[in-house]
Amino acid sequence: MAIIDPDGLAEPTSGLGPTRSGPRPLRGGLLRRRASRSGRARPPWVALAILFVLLVCAVGANWLAPHNPLYGVLEARNLPPFWVHGGKIDYPLGTDELGRDILSRMIYGVRTSLTISIVSLILGGILGVVLGLVSGWYGRWVDEVIMRTVDVFLAMPLVLLTLVFIAIFGASQNLLIVILVLYSWVRFARVVRGEVLRLKNLDHVALARVAGVSTWRILFVHILPGVRNTLIIVATLEIGALILLEATLSFLGAGVPQPTPSWGSMVSEGRAYLANAWWISTLPGIGILFAVLAFNLVGEWLRDRLDPRSGRGKS
Description:
By secondary structure, this protein is an all-alpha fold. The chain has two domains: 2-40, no CATH class; 45-310, MetI-like fold, CATH 1.10.3720.10. It contains twelve helices and three strands. It has helices at 27-40, 45-59, 61-64, 102-138, 140-155, 158-169, 173-199, 203-210, 215-223, 228-251, 263-269, 279-306, and strands at 2-4, 9-12, 19-20. A three-stranded antiparallel sheet has the order 1-2-3, with no helix packed on it. Helix 2 (45-59) packs across helix 4 and helix 4 runs parallel beside helix 7. The radius of gyration is 27 Å and the shape is elongated.
């Protein structure tokens, strides 16, 4: 007589060693693996909720903001948030040194940051994808030129370069977008090049070449769809970096020109009032923190779901 344990091993009551009682059931191990995978791939609901709120604020800023973000009331300057003694419910997050409503400026600041970051991401992504496809497909001197150009851009001191451009051309949103495009395209190019080097030797690509399909059709019809998941992951992670970079440049006075609301410039404006009006800088800084963290968490989740080579991908 033998007792069967949950893992499928027979434990005899006699002195004989353990023996198999048939095929080992996979049930327990399979359920454990599925539970582990589902735990790793669980959607980050808090991060997704933050991104939804940011999107709603960016789209509906005109209707959600309780006050005009550009004009203030001097009699109401430096009011604290409503939960602090002396605060008013009319200004839920307080006011700045010019009496402008912090909540309204933060809502409009979301629109500014997301607009600049998304436009820069799209333009930089298109440029990087095209150059990455060309570099990985043609190889040789074409690949060498493009990759050395990538190395040059990665080695550039971006903040110093931005300050030089601002001194020459003056601050503007268009110049800021150009600078962010120069920052963002290199990562797309390197990632896409690596994917092309892997995909161009697959059978369906070889058959397309034998069939006489044009190079550009092979790149955009047969290879680019295979890079789609990787591009989604890179874009999600990159937009958080672009938001942080835009805030950094605006903090230094090299980003969005005044009086357009921007989280980075709001943090900069409140530095002189940290001792007695901490909310002017602190609340926009918390907004930057949560926005970047939310995009990074969603990007990590997408990588777990879409990238099987990470060892954590969706089965």
